[in-house]
Amino acid sequence: MSELTSLALPHVASLHAYTPGLQPGESGWVKLNTNECPYPPSPRVMDAIRTALGADGSSLRLYPNPKSAPLRAAVARHHGAGLTAENVIIGNGSDDLLNLLVRAFCANSANAGITFPSYSLYPVLIGIQDGRTEVIPFDRSMRLPVDRIISSTARAFFLTSPNAPTGVAFSNAELERVLAGFPGLLIVDEAYAPFAEENAVSLLAAHPRLVVVRTLSKAHALAGIRVGYALAHPEIIGLLDRVRDSYNVNALSQAAALAAIEDPDYYAAIIARIKATRDRTIADFAVRRRWFTYPSSANFVFTEPKDAHGVSSPAVAKSAYDFLVAHKVLVRIFPSHALTASFLRITVGTDQEMLVLSDTLDTWSKTHTA
Ligand SMILES: *Cc1c(COP(=O)(O)O)cnc(C)c1O
Fold first, then answer.
1. Is the CB of 94 under 6 A from ligand 1?
2. What spacing in Å lies between the alpha carbon of 218 and ligand 1's midpoint?
3. For residue 295, how many other CB atoms are within 10 A of its CB?
4. How many Å apart are CA 246 and CA 255, to the nearest integer?
5. CA atoms of 351 and 277, how far apart (whole Å)
6. Residues with Cβ < 8 Å from 176, sequence gap 6 or more?
């Protein structure tokens, strides 16, 4: 270890940074690797950014609203369900909120709970706080291990629903069983809930230990502006406000997010398109190709490719991935664990993009032998 690194706190010196999905610099890629929206945001978002900027940009001299107060109110109105602005906190992406939750509730003396597989950022954030993690693995069914979560030692448990990278959603009935038995904070990361049939917002009123985390990065086509929010009991929101950066969301992002939240009809239409493309994609993989594919309630599918001999394996998944990359189609693989290594995670793009993907995989299927 270098002298400079040894000046850092020991847990920081041994950290591994989160590995984001590739963002290729040049155009020409069919980019299906980071679950972004294939359609542009509401046109009202562009108008709101221009208005917030003003003619000469002089509004940028001023600090933004420190609490993103108008946005908190708009999010509460958008969800209804008896929520008020007191139940809402806005973050610089939902990653910011996940980080605040770890800061407030997880430490070396207070375990964080996660499932495997799920969003791989959680262990990174917990590591930054020198926290301890209890990992509860799924089996291949990917069904929620309710009893194991209930009996975990975690102070706060992070659950992704619909899950990543599988797309499998957990029902409110299952979440209520967890809430009835688990004494800690249950954080449900609903990054993909706009694509699902059910979500946990209606459970908030009866369950003060529930936190629901949302993002505008996926269904709202705004990954670049970095806005997410959390819904919870006002006391939890108050705790998160104590550990938050005072100006954590910039002025242009607040304006853009407000316009997006206030245009639900636009988003209902693109979400319906993405779900229709997703369901056709699942049929293509599961029915036509007979590749094992998890039922997806998200904007991506998790499928296990078979080679020309009908074999699935990590090497087969890697071969399909490499072939796709060579043809400028970018998807994601998760080679480090047996539960995920033989799969591809494919973001639902436009119908045209899915056609390119499908044609490229057809060519790979015919030519590849292990
Ligand atoms: C994409 C994603 C996020 C990150 O959202 P940002 O708001 O862009 O930070 C959080 N959780 C899950 C499960 C995600 O897939």
1. yes
2. 8
3. 14
4. 18
5. 6
6. 203, 207
| 97 touches 89 (CB < 8 A) | yes
**Residue 164 CB less than 6 A away from ligand 1:** yes
Structure-token match 């970095």, residue found: 226
What distance in angstroms lies between residue 370's CA and the mean position of ligand 1's atoms? 35
Cα–ligand 1 centroid distance for 141 (angstroms): 24
- For 120-162, the pLDDT digits (tens) are 999 999 999 999 999 999 999 999 999 999 999 999 999 999 9
Tell me how far CA of residue 148 lies from CA of 109, 152, 221, 335, 349, in angstroms: 20, 6, 36, 26, 36
pLDDT tens, 97-123?
A: 999 999 999 999 999 999 999 999 999
Of 326, 323, 293, 328, nearest in space to 308 by CA:
323
191 CB under 6 A from ligand 1?
A: yes
Give the whole-angstrom CA distance, residue 92 versus residue 323: 36
Q: Which domains does the chain have, with CATH numbers?
A: 3-40+265-367 (3.90.1150.10), 43-263 (3.40.640.10)
Residue 227 and residue 365: Cα distance in Å, rounded? 40
Residue 160 Cβ contacting ligand 1 at under 6 Å = yes
Q: Could you tell me if 115 and 135 are in contact, meaning their C-beta atoms sit under 8 angstroms apart?
A: yes
Name every residue whose Cβ is closer than 8 Å to that of residue 204 and which is 6 or more positions away in sequence: 81, 83, 87, 210, 212, 231, 232, 233
160 CA: nearest ligand 1 atom: 13
CB of 175 closer than 8 Å to CB of 206: no
